[in-house]
Design brief:
The chain is an alpha/beta fold. It has a single domain, classed as Rossmann fold. The strands form two sheets. A six-stranded mixed beta sheet has the order 6-7-8-3-9-10, sandwiched between helices. A four-stranded antiparallel beta sheet has the order 2-1-4-5, with helices on one face. It is globular and about 50 Å long. It starts with a strand and ends with a helix.
Length: about 240
């Protein structure tokens, strides 16, 4: 589905990744882990077409992300940043509707089918009853679900999330990851998220992508645990 072909990534004179080749299959939930500053966010941005590569190519369905225009890229990849979103006076339904921007006409008018897709996205994350509420009056976990609903409304085969559990308590972290797991498996999507939660990565994800600068080790979670790479990197 999404393939990294001999990519190198960095900024200034610093190299984060060099000569990395791997691919992420549809229907899988993958945790991206690594030490602070290893380049997790930079890699996610590169996968979304928001960060230039130093070398190599990233392709989705065989087409280079760098060759896609903005609207077409937004039909292939949805990106959920780590920032807290608190927009007063904007109902959740309207925020999720922003995910339909790559498909609407030039004035952004929603058609009936777009509204159905928005309602379905909210239902899939269990937030239908919050459609007319504003995010400034919601918990962090509820807001994160709404942001995932916006990504679902884009109807992309790939969803990338930068530390989606960062502001959540432990029960909500597991609940959110169960949601991501279900969306990946049932929707046959590639879902890749960065995290510092090693227990979640090893127990709830299909695969783990571990940045050990300048390499990226990508394996099924069970193989990653058995191989000891996590223990070696983090000194556990």
């Amino acid at each position: 589905m999404i393939r990294l072909e001999n990519i190198s990534l960095g900024y200034g004179t610093r190299t984060l990744l060099e000569g990395v080749t791997t691919h992420f299959e549809a229907g899988t939930l993958t945790a991206l882990i690594g030490r602070n500053g290893a380049g997790k966010s930079t890699l996610l941005r590169a996968l979304a077409g928001l960060e230039p590569l130093q070398a190599g190519a990233i392709t989705i369905g065989g087409q280079s992300i760098a060759e896609l225009d903005g609207a077409e890229a937004a039909r292939r990849v949805a990106f959920v940043a780590t920032d807290k979103v608190r927009i007063a006076n904007l109902p959740c339904e309207d925020l999720v509707a922003l995910g339909r921007a790559p498909y609407t006409n030039w004035i952004g008018r929603l058609q009936a089918v777009d509204r159905e897709i928005v309602a379905d996205a909210l239902a899939k994350v269990g937030m239908s009853e919050f459609a007319h509420k504003t995010m400034d009056r919601m918990s962090d976990g509820e807001c994160q679900r709404v942001m995932i609903a916006r990504a679902l409304a884009q109807q992309t085969p790939v969803i990338l999330l930068d530390e989606p559990t960062a502001f959540l308590d432990m029960p909500n972290r597991y609940e959110l990851c169960r949601l991501l797991q279900r969306l990946a498996h049932d929707g046959q999507k590639v879902i890749l998220f960065s995290t510092h939660e090693l227990d979640i990565a090893t127990k709830m994800c299909d695969a783990i992508a571990l940045i050990d600068t300048p390499q990226l080790l990508h394996q099924p979670a069970s193989e990653m645990v058995a191989g000891g790479a996590i223990e070696r990197l983090f000194g556990i």
